[in-house]
């Protein structure tokens, strides 16, 4: 029935849904641009009012684009100029990009044609002369990029740009920073003069920015300043960011620069890659009268920092000294940096073959009592001495990743004593060459929440004492320790608040075969990574008590045996302890079986990944509880069929299905449901649908896409199937009817008659009921049994009941027949004294009994009482009298008792039978 329904739906799923799905998949996987760019672009791409005409070798602006364009990208073409007429079709343009062309000049009418223009990018062209008229109407322009041209400014070319916030004239061989003589550019925020040829800043160079009260950023990167006239920054004293990266100036010029910055609003100063090899105690003197918060000195090859060099920078919050060559940190270097929050020393202390291992003196960081983050990444230091970090009383994060410190190879309870007063939250020891962690080595870190120990060489059994004192720890990362770590039942007893624990590629293969489980104290654990450990043995109680576990990573282990039904003691259902799982990864485990109850109860599971296993036939209900599933990965298995019995529930809410590279069997039974599902689903993304879902069998479909499978071929089966079901049902019903009629036909006949009589109203039972009967019972018996009647029934008349005996009570003067009819009508009940003799008696059979029954049926009374003197078979009874025991109520069928002592009881029963109401009871 199911199949019929699905085929019906299939017929209504047009072919183009497939195409649509493919395009969608492409978009989801690679973003919209690459789907289009896959084949080389030959014309402009227009989307949402934006036209992309880049890289088309165009010599002019195409005239036939939609007139309502707001954005036009003409970059990387062969434009020699932008004649305004070529843009008249697009008066609504807000953004025009003509970078990377061969434009030699801007033409005055441009902004007249494009009055709304906001951004104009002319980067990397050949613009030579720039005059006032060229930009005269560009009052709406907010961004102008003229970088990498050959600018010769004539007059005041920028004077009209009232709205301009961003101006880039870098790399133009400008001989002066002076872009005009009158005050202009009132809205300017960001000015780049980088990579130009001037070496002097005269005191009126920036006077044209006198009234640019929003100016914040000045970029002078790679400008080799030699002379700074006093007061050169005065007109722009509101700048907050100055970038001097790559300028080849010496320490002396920097000192001059700083003194010119004195009194400005400078906040961020970037002095990267300037060959600033030494810092003296006067270099930054000029910055004392500023509120500088961020200073970047990275990449300067700096070897020497005089003591007190930073003492002027009491407001500094961030100092980057990365990529330098500092040999020796002494206790006076950071003097005065009382506000410093972040110190980045990445690659600042390095060992080379020509130099010794750098040294950090005791108390070097003591002045930095506001420091919250210290980054010592990729440094080498000879020794972590007893007071190396003393004084860092605000330190929250210490990054010592990828370092080579001898002291970190074997971390003892002495290694970090200098951090005992630091409220450290995060300690990063990734790749720090750690080989051993000893009892109590982290015990000074009472406030630590995150400990990173990935990519080390830890080779030991964790007894639990290593984590002593980590009272607040929530996350321990210990992946990539080369499968040398062993666990014990007590490994984590000291860290009961742990939320995250990663042990991927760290454990020896037998590490988890412990009872009780090492994880049993971790009831708060939400994330557990045990991947890449080659683990083969785990116990059923491994996750017991992990009631909060959400993510479990077990990929790249060897857990196939654990889930085999042939496993000694049955499959190990280790997931039953972790019913809150939302993500379960078990790829690459050699699994060929999933036990029926393995995933039972995981109703919150959203991601299930079982790729790269050997799964073939999946049992019907294994995924039955997974009704929250959003992502299912089953790629690279041996799955041949995708049946609804297995997949209907997990696929009902899916947003991602990855099931490619399986040897699908493309037959109606195996694949039709899946195909139909894929055509129907619009919320599930199925990447690689065309290429990765191919048929393995049957031969006709070998190596073709599952989507090529002809679903209509399954339809032919349905009429036959329907016919089969129909005919078999008919035969079955016929058989049942025949049997019923054979064995219970009389019952239907009887009730039918009563029903007919009552509904057609031949009689009215309730009226009948009230009628006065003359007799209690009309007795029908064979002549031979008359004596029994005389002896046994007649005496009962004394006790207020009255029988009608035909011999005795025949109405005088009436014919016998008429008398019988009359008397039966006058009697409430009809009592048959059943014996073989009665059944043989033709008179009784033919007339009396017939008449009585006629009466019964007509009056709809259930007024027959049978008294059996002999055991008579029901069959004989129905043959002769058209009566059966089953037609009557049990109390109206009496047997004459064999035992004398039971005769009174018989009498009692008989009276009850006679005294009953006659109404037929439904
Ligand atoms: C531009 O005009 C075309 C019709 O010429 C219209 O389909 C499109 O929606 C318009 N686009 C915008 C951004 O107004
Ligand atoms: C700078 O250091 C020198 C000695 O190296 C010292 O004489 C001088 O007073 C120091 N200057 C300041 C401003 O600290
Ligand atoms: C530095 O900040 C203080 C307080 O915020 C302020 O009074 C002072 O003027 C600022 N100095 C400069 C040079 O901006
Ligand atoms: C430290 O400096 C290096 C080099 O400049 C940089 O790559 C890194 O991002 C910085 N680290 C932090 C945390 O800012
Ligand atoms: C590490 O130090 C502990 C005690 O300080 C010592 O017992 C152990 O042998 C050391 N381990 C290594 C690998 O040096
Ligand atoms: C460090 O551990 C040793 C034993 O390994 C112990 O004697 C010593 O007291 C510990 N020191 C601290 C500061 O806990
Ligand atoms: C740890 O944090 C608490 C408050 O969060 C603070 O009182 C305590 O001083 C900190 N411990 C250390 C060693 O700084």
Protein described:
This protein is of the alpha/beta class and 922 residues long. Helix content is 21%, strand content 15%. The strands form 10 sheets. It has a 26-stranded mixed sheet, with no helix packed on it. It has a 5-stranded parallel sheet with strand order 44-43-45-46-47, sandwiched between helices. Strand 39, helix 6 and strand 40 (656-658) form a beta-alpha-beta unit. The radius of gyration is 50 Å and the shape is elongated. The structure holds 2-acetamido-2-deoxy-beta-D-glucopyranose (7 copies). One 2-acetamido-2-deoxy-beta-D-glucopyranose binds at residues 423, 446-447.
Q: What's the arrangement of secondary structure elements?
A:
Blueprint (H helix, E strand, L loop, with lengths): L1 H10 L4 H22 L7 E3 L2 E3 L18 E3 L21 E3 L12 H4 L5 E3 L7 E2 L12 E3 L6 E2 L12 E3 L21 E3 L7 E2 L15 E3 L7 E2 L12 E3 L7 H11 L6 E3 L7 E2 L14 E3 L7 E2 L12 E3 L7 E2 L12 E3 L14 E2 L12 E3 L4 E2 L15 E3 L4 E2 H4 E2 L14 E3 L7 E2 L12 E3 L8 E2 L12 E3 L8 E2 L12 E3 L24 E3 L21 E3 L29 E3 L21 E3 L21 E3 L10 H4 L8 E3 L5 E2 L2 H13 L8 H4 L2 E3 L14 H4 L1 H43 L5 H6 L4 E6 L5 H8 L9 E3 H4 L6 H11 E8 L1 H5 L1 H18 L4 E5 L5 H8 L11 E3 L7 H13 L7
Parallel strand pairs: 2-3, 3-4, 4-5, 5-7, 6-8, 7-9, 9-10, 10-12, 11-13, 12-14, 14-15, 15-17, 16-18, 17-19, 19-21, 20-22, 21-23, 23-25, 24-26, 25-28, 27-29, 28-30, 30-32, 31-33, 32-34, 34-35, 35-36, 36-37, 37-38, 38-39, 39-40, 41-42, 43-44, 43-45, 45-46, 46-47
Antiparallel strand pairs: 1-2
Helix pairs in contact: 14-16
């Amino acid at each position: 029935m199911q199949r019929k329904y699905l085929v019906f739906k299939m017929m209504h799923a047009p072919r183009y849904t497939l195409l649509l799905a493919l395009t969608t998949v492409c978009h989801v996987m690679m973003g919209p641009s690459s789907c289009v760019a896959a084949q080389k672009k030959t014309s402009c791409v227009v989307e949402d009012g934006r036209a992309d005409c880049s890289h088309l070798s165009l010599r002019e602006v195409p005239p036939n684009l939609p007139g309502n364009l707001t954005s036009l990208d003409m970059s990387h073409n062969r434009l020699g100029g932008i004649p305004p007429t070529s843009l008249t079709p697009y008066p609504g343009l807000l953004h025009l990009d003509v970078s990377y062309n061969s434009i030699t000049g801007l033409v005055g009418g441009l902004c007249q044609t494009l009055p709304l223009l906001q951004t104009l990018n002319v980067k990397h062209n050949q613009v030579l002369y720039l005059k006032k008229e060229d930009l005269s109407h560009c009052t709406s322009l907010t961004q102008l990029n003229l970088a990498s041209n050959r600018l010769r400014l004539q007059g005041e070319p920028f004077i009209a740009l009232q709205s301009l916030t961003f101006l880039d004239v870098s790399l133009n061989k400008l001989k002066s920073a002076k872009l005009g003589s009158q005050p202009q550019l009132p809205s300017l925020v960001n000015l780049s003069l980088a990579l130009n040829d001037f070496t002097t800043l005269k005191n009126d160079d920036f006077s044209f920015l006198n009234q640019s009260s929003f100016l914040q950023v000045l970029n002078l990167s790679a400008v080799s300043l030699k002379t700074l006239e006093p007061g050169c920054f005065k007109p722009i004293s509101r700048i907050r960011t100055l970038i001097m990266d790559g300028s080849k100036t010496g320490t002396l010029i920097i000192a001059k620069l700083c003194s010119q910055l004195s009194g400005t609003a400078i906040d961020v100063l970037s002095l990267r890659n300037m060959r600033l090899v030494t810092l003296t105690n006067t270099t930054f003197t000029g910055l004392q009268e500023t509120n500088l918060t961020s200073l970047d000195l990275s990449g300067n090859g700096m070897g020497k920092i005089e003591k007190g060099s930073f003492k002027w920078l009491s407001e500094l919050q961030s100092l980057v000294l990365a990529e330098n060559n500092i040999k020796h940190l002494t206790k006076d270097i950071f003097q005065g940096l009382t506000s410093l929050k972040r110190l980045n020393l990445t690659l600042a202390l390095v060992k080379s073959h020509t130099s010794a291992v750098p040294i950090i003196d005791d108390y070097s960081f003591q002045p930095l009592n506001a420091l919250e983050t210290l980054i010592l990444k990729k440094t080498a230091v000879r020794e972590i001495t007893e007071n190396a970090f003393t004084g860092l009383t605000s330190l929250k994060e210490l990054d010592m990743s990828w370092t080579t410190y001898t002291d970190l190879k074997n971390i003892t309870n002495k290694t970090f004593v200098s951090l005992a007063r630091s409220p450290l939250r995060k300690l990063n020891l990734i790749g720090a060459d750690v080989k051993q962690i000893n009892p109590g080595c982290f015990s000074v870190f009472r406030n630590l929440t995150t400990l990173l120990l990935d990519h080390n060489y830890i080779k030991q059994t964790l007894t639990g004492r290593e984590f002593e004192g980590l009272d607040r720890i929530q996350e321990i990362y210990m992946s990539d320790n080369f499968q040398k770590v062993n666990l014990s039942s007590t490994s984590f007893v000291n860290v009961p608040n742990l939320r995250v624990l990663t042990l991927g590629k760290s454990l020896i293969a037998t590490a988890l075969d412990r009872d009780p489980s090492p994880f049993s104290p971790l009831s708060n654990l939400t994330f557990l990574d045990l991947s890449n450990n080659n683990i083969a043995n785990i116990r059923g109680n491994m996750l017991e008590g992990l009631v909060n576990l959400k993510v479990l990573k077990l990929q790249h282990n060897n857990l196939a045996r654990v889930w085999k039904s042939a496993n000694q003691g049955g499959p190990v259902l280790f997931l039953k302890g972790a019913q809150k799982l939302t993500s379960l990864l078990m790829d690459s485990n050699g699994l060929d079986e999933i036990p029926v109850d393995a995933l039972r109860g995981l109703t919150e599971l959203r991601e299930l990944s079982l790729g790269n296993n050997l799964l073939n036939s999946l049992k019907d209900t294994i995924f039955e509880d997974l009704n929250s599933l959003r992502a299912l990965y089953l790629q690279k298995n041996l799955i041949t069929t995708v049946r609804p019995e297995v997949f209907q529930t997990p696929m009902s809410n899916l947003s991602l299905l990855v099931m490619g590279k399986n040897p699908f069997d493309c037959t109606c039974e195996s694949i039709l449901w899946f195909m139909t599902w894929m055509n129907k689903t619009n919320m599930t993304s199925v990447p690689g649908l065309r290429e990765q879902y191919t048929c393995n069998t049957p031969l006709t479909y070998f190596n073709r896409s599952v989507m090529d499978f002809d679903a209509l071929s399954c339809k032919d089966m349905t009429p036959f199937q329907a016919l089969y079901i129909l005919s078999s049902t008919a035969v079955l019903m016929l058989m049942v009817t025949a049997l019923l009629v054979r064995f219970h036909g009389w019952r239907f006949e009887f009730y039918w008659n009563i029903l007919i009589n009552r509904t057609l109203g031949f009689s009215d039972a309730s009226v009948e009921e009230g009628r006065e009967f003359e007799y209690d019972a009309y007795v029908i018996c064979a002549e031979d049994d008359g004596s029994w009647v005389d002896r046994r029934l007649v005496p009962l008349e004394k006790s207020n009941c009255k029988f009608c005996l035909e011999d005795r009570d025949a109405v005088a003067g009436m014919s016998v027949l008429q008398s019988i009819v009359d008397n039966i009508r006058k009697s409430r009940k009809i009592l048959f004294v059943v014996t073989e003799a009665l059944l043989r008696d033709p008179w009784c059979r033919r007339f009396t009994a017939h008449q009585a029954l006629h009466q019964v049926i007509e009056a709809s009374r259930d007024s027959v009482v049978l008294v059996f003197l002999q055991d008579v078979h029901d069959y004989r009874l129905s043959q002769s009298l058209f009566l059966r025991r089953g037609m009557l109520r049990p109390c109206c069928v009496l047997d004459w008792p064999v035992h004398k002592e039971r005769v009174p009881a018989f009498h009692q029963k008989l009276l009850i039978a006679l005294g009953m109401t006659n109404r037929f009871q439904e």
